[in-house]
Design a protein that fits this description.
The protein has about 300 residues and is of the alpha/beta class. It folds into three domains: about 80 residues, Arc Repressor Mutant, subunit A; about 100 residues, 3-Layer(aba) Sandwich (D-Maltodextrin-Binding Protein, domain 2), CATH 3.40.190; about 100 residues, 3-Layer(aba) Sandwich (D-Maltodextrin-Binding Protein, domain 2). It has ten helices and twelve strands. Helix 6 crosses helix 10. The protein is rod-shaped and about 100 Å long. The chain starts with a helix and ends in a 5-residue tail after the last helix.
Amino acid sequence: MVDLRLLGYVVAVAEEGSVSGAARRLGLTQPTLSRQLGGLERRLGVELFERDGRRLAPTAAGAALVRRSTALLAEAEAAVEDVRLAADGRSGHLTVAFAGSGINGPLGAALGRLRRELPRVALRLEESFSDTEMSEGVLDGRFDIAVQRLPLRDARLTAEEWWHEPLAFFLPDGHPLAHGLGPAPLEDLGRIPLVLWPREVSPQSYDEIRALCAQAGVVPRAGAEGRSVQTVLALVAAGFGGAVMSQSHRALRRVGVVPRDLAGTRTTLHLVRRAADHNPLVERFRDVLADVAAGRGA
């Protein structure tokens, strides 16, 4: 294998047209460069340069080596740049899992900013309706980071609070509760059937709504079940009941549905990653998310 340094010498001589000019450019003495080129020619068994008037010109073999060397040196430089960018969290692959409530809120702005500022990052997005699935995906390496409301409690995970917002009560627009003033009291959860997530789909969300009902001292009545946000809202619009979801789902503006903040509630989006993972790209993404949460641009 030929040292890249020697290939650089060959290219420099070809571009300068002389050993002396190439030596000055490379910071070498002329005898040292001549000795290096002579050794390379003996090793290859060919002459690389011939005199053409006052200049040195590549032979046919030399021209072939110059072409190859130029491409190899450019590729080597690109590889070094890729390493630097990866170490700085500016290139590589990043897989982000998120719930619908996240993408409807500030997460969308953060992802757009990441895409603009880090064009060398291959960003893959995975939507999930299951908090359990997202946390487990981070643990087994399918996801680099998850933006979710209710992470698993596991010592192998790091979960930090990122964004806070109220829960909202999404109501059929024909129901009297939809036209109340101000936030809806928790007691309203007992005044209309509820459209719920099946517990096997999202046990944390299901248990959260049950806990709110218990806090209000009401017994919930199940009106229907939906396995996606769009289905839940469609069932609400059709009059099957009200649904409790994060406020950011207001952005969907479903016809026939009126959202009201749910008094005394707050939900939190967490950034969930592996505790032992020090991927600089994940750290860079966290910086972007922190800026968006602080209102420092999107």
